[in-house]
């Protein structure tokens, strides 16, 4: 009987988990902690291979841990069935998870009303006379949508891809014929621009707020929406300006002018008609949300509370219907997925695994200076993304461990190094064709071939990292640190 690839991946994840548990428990680690770690690794392997939906993998992991009564903090060595399931469901009451969920609901408003498409077409019509201008139009459109659509797959693949993919055939540029005329350039601009915008805003991609929650579970309070934006500000300006220009020189299009695109955008914009009342309402609601997110500390309104208010306003004004709310499968999927991951990541600390692993790591980092240790952690956390097909899996598997190691370095400011590790999580997605949610969409278009994709990913990924290290770290440590903490 032939076993399909899906079954192999499922079996592989289970076998790895069992093999780890079969290894004798290391000295100094409680048996329950080793059992929990084996379950956790099985979940991480499953998230990397994705034989079944990630949310379902997380739910299975929680269920197994609850049945084994491992995960929560034990009281006198005993964990009741009630405390086990309370821990297992704790992620569903997490405010950050609900912020991500609410932001997905806001994103559906941009899709349903057509406002996202209108913004993109207006920018293409305005800036699309040259190919470089078209690259900037793509970047600006993505940047406008990024604070309100936290799924870069939905934002880039769902809103921008249908528009941008319509342009290359107008110039006879196809994946298998003359891709370098214009198609490859636009594809790389769109991909890399979304990676940049995913780092600019806390709500630019779903793993960003998840990382804050994992840090919080490790005892580290990080930053607000406004603090995140301010911390990344100079890097975001440089990368936003640089990305289309760098693409233009390193991966140049053969066609430099694109007047046909302007005509096409005008026709498409005329086809969708004048701006509708619902679009105007959504613009006003979005401005309201942005003001409250940026000024959350001033208004003393939690970011999640703002997001829920926005959902209520959208439903009340019929920007989206209640059926739209109930039928938004990506949002409900993310709610289950991230709720389980938050609980699972917190369990590593609860069972004492991180403390044990930290003591081992302390032996190897004891000779490092604070600055050397900080840079090592930041760079290593960035580079290991080559091994992850999901930023969410990356956060779940490694962030708590890296924070634990940082806590053991004498004199280390753990809040600072945690922030420095998580801010570039969006830009690290440019490294590989599978590194973040929208990458497979653009890679599958076929305009950028495999070898070119890896080469461009390396160039852009490490250019972004160098700028972040040279500009971002001094800005954060010497200029805005006291303002954002």
TrEMBL record:
It comes from Providencia sneebia DSM 19967. One of its GO terms (cellular component) is membrane. GO terms for molecular function: transmembrane transporter activity. NCBIfam families: dass (TIGR00785). It is a multi-pass membrane protein. It is found in: Membrane. InterPro entries: CitT-rel (IPR030676), SLC13A/DASS (IPR001898). Keywords: Membrane, Transmembrane, Transmembrane helix. The chain crosses the membrane at residues 7-27, 33-49, 56-75, 87-110, 155-172, 184-205, 225-251, 280-299, 305-322, 334-357, 363-384, 391-410, 416-435, 456-476. This is Citrate:succinate antiporter. Belongs to the SLC13A/DASS transporter (TC 2.A.47) family. DIT1 subfamily. It comes from the Bacteria. It holds the Pfam family Na_sulph_symp.
